[in-house]
Design a protein that fits this description.
The protein has a two-stranded parallel ribbon with strand order 1-2. The chain is built from twelve helices and two strands; from the N terminus they run βαααααααααααβα. By secondary structure, it is mainly α. Helix 3 packs antiparallel against helix 4 and helix 4 packs parallel to helix 9.
Length: about 250
């Protein structure tokens, strides 16, 4: 790893999730009551997908700029909520059985156009285990991102706008993650069928609305999760990978 990059801080501390969990439970044992599954999350996901489909249908005859504005001001909020539903399903916090949570993630993914729910699950679980390890944590910016963007406001704005693309590129460097499995394939097939139905019944403008809602919700938007990771501090913590985690 390049030692000349100054936007990263290399540390040898253990992965923080497990330590923080013990500290929180010890200080506030009552928090265990919140560690449960919430089936109602599935209903929230279905409601948001339905709302997005209705809005897409209503916008199908509108000019592109009206559609884009609606995606930024309204659609992004639904898409961001659906991302949270996908996150909960990735941790199996909706239903007890894995396949049920997978189904919730796939359905919640419908309004985002791009089949990412199950791939997110696979990479996100790895992030929790190997947080800060450059070769295993897809949530960590790449080395070239630090050199390209640095700490300039304009650069960060551009980076946030293209954040979904950067996030996809990061996954290429990650090891030990199943890029394709049966659930990923199911996600792709179901998503393509949904997208085809949207185009068939409502047209390309409707599909564009759904895509831009997704794009804004994880990028240059007040709700974009990327903003919370990148603008709070000019540096990111990186844990040096050991022989065990890197092999």
């Amino acid at each position: 790893m390049p030692s000349t990059v100054k936007s990263f801080v290399l540390v040898d501390t253990p992965e923080p999730h497990r330590v923080r969990t013990r500290q929180i439970v010890k200080a506030h044992p009552e928090v265990k009551e919140l560690m449960t599954r919430t089936p109602a999350t599935a209903l929230i996901g279905i409601a948001c997908v339905a709302a997005q489909v209705v809005l897409a249908a209503l916008l199908r005859d509108q000019p592109w700029y009206v559609m884009a504005l609606a995606a930024y001001l309204v659609g992004a909020f639904f898409s961001h909520t659906l991302f949270v539903v996908i996150h909960e399903a990735a941790h199996n916090l909706v239903f007890r059985k894995v396949w049920q949570n997978v189904a919730v993630g796939i359905v919640a993914n419908f309004a985002s156009v791009v089949p990412t729910a199950i791939s997110f699950k696979n990479f996100h679980i790895k992030h929790h285990v190997f947080q800060g390890v450059h070769e295993l944590d897809a949530d960590l910016p790449d080395w070239y991102e630090a050199k390209l963007i640095k700490n300039y406001s304009v650069g960060k704005a551009i980076w946030l706008f293209f954040f979904p693309l950067f996030q996809v590129i990061r996954t290429i460097r990650c090891r030990e993650v199943a890029v394709f499995d049966r659930y990923v394939v199911a996600n792709i097939v179901a998503q393509l069928a949904f997208d085809a139905a949207i185009v068939y019944f409502f047209g390309w403008v409707a599909l564009g609305y759904l895509f831009l809602s997704f794009w804004f919700s994880v990028g240059l938007h007040p709700l974009g999760p990327a903003g919370f990771k990148s603008t709070i501090s000019p540096w990111m913590r990186v844990r040096k990978p050991t022989a065990t985690t890197a092999d």
